[in-house]
Each structure stands twice: as structure tokens, then as C-alpha cells.
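Quick one from the shared queue. A colleague (R.T.) flagged Cilia- and flagella-associated protein 298 as missing a structural entry in our internal table.

Convert sequence to C-alpha cells.
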Amino acid sequence: MVLLHVKRGEESLFLLEAGVSTGVGEVLERVVQLHNATLKVLRLCAGIEQLAEYGPSLPPEMQGLADEQIEELNLKDDWAEKSVASGGEVENRDPTGQRRGRQPTEKIRKVLLDAVREAKGLVSKELAKAGTPMTLRHPQDALALLGGAVTMAYPAGLPPHDPVREERESRERLEGTQAGKMVLESAMTQLWFAGKELQCDKKLRDYLGNNDKTKVIVKVQRRGGGAPAREPQLTPDQQKALMVQQFKRREELQKLEEAEDDSYLDSSWADSRQLHRSFQGLCNITWKPH
């Protein structure tokens, strides 16, 4: 299987395995699915971290309002008594006013945050560094893990307007957000290799040959964005090593220059006849006009 190291710009995303007989269109579809599924896991993780800190989300009409404003407008959170964390809650006000400000107990928080940590590990970019290819099973397992933790923490469920529930039910609202800009669409995405766009009607072997043991870097680019920047000839680690080597070389040259410096011969202590002149009283003679 060919090992594709998928990147977006300079950012490493994941490793993907595919046979040389696989169509480029199929590879592109898998790349887009994996990328978007990974983003979904990370968005859900971020929402659960907020949930563990400040509790469920307030209704949209109550978000960002002070208590006095809520009372004045006679607004009410109908889910306040329904969506309660297992084991009880403690007050922890949300400084942004987006969430209820009712934090789960430490035990439930640990369940949620442990699930977040494990889910992030399943879709981590460190997998690529470790040489582990990613499949759809990775984000699917992460989503199942997070869903189980949320269900355990809130048996009665979360409010329908809570971002965590929206994400789990694929009702997330990403229009006009930075998160939405990160999502890829197959029709608007291209794959590039060695400065060439991979055409969807061709197969990988048309670009990589028939060697199934190849590992190559493939870059994801939005259609119409032109060719992505080529990979640097040196990796960051190689660049650092080269700079260290150059610094050591300059130090060595400087030491050699200092070792060859003969300006010390002008010093009095380097004069071999200094002792003889001192006996004759010829040292420190100054000439003054009469």
C-alpha cells in the first residue's frame, strides 16, 4: 500500500494508505471525509470541555444577558431542571454568559475530560509522526467515546440548543465561522503531488508508478487556489542542526584567529630585554621639552 502523508499548507494532517490502483477521486473523497470527521471530533471536544466547566448552554435569547436583564425580560430556561448533571452540580459562572454556570461534580468532570483526552489522542497529528495511518474508524471511535461520556454525565440529555448536542446530531451551525472555513467539500478540493494537480479521473499509479511501498506527501488545496508551496529542502530539525553546525564553525574560526594574534608582542611583559633595561635604569623614560 502507498502511504500518503496528507498536508494542508505546512500543517501535517494524517497518514492515509491506498493502493496504486486506487482512483484519485476515491482518495480525495477519503481525505475529505477523514479531515472533516477529525474537525468534528475536535469541535465536540471543545464543546465538552466547556460543558464540564460551565454546564449546559443557555437558550439563545438568554445568552450574554445579565441576571437583571433576564429578570426584566421575564426569560426562563425551560431546560434548567431537566438537563442536570448526574451526581449534582456546583455554581461556576460562565464569564461569557453563554452557559448556565452550573458545573458538574469533580467525578463527572473527570469522566468528561478523560473522554476528551482519549478522543483527541485517536485523531492526533502525532499519529502521523508515529507512522500510524488513519482510517474512518479513528474519528468514529472518538465520537462514540465522547457520546458515551456525555450520556453518562447528563442522563436526561442536553438542551436542543446546546452546541454539544447539535454537534452530536449533526445540526452544528458553522456558517460564517472560522470552524466552517476549515471544512472541506470534495467538489471544491484538489490534491497535489510534486507540484502537479492529481486529476480525479486518473489512478495513483499514473503519478506514483507501480511501487506499492512508496511514501509521498500529498497536499490538500481548495480549487482555484493555485499550486501549494513546495516542501522545503530541509526539515525544521535539519535547519536547526545546520545552524548549530555553522555556529560551532564560527566559534572555531574565532578561536583560531585569537590563537594567531601576535599583538601581544607589543606588550612590555613580552619584551625579552625588559629585565636588562630595568637594571640599567632605562625603563619608563619620558622626553619633555626644556
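Residues 26-187 form one domain.
Residues 24-54 form the longest helix (31 residues).
Added to the table.
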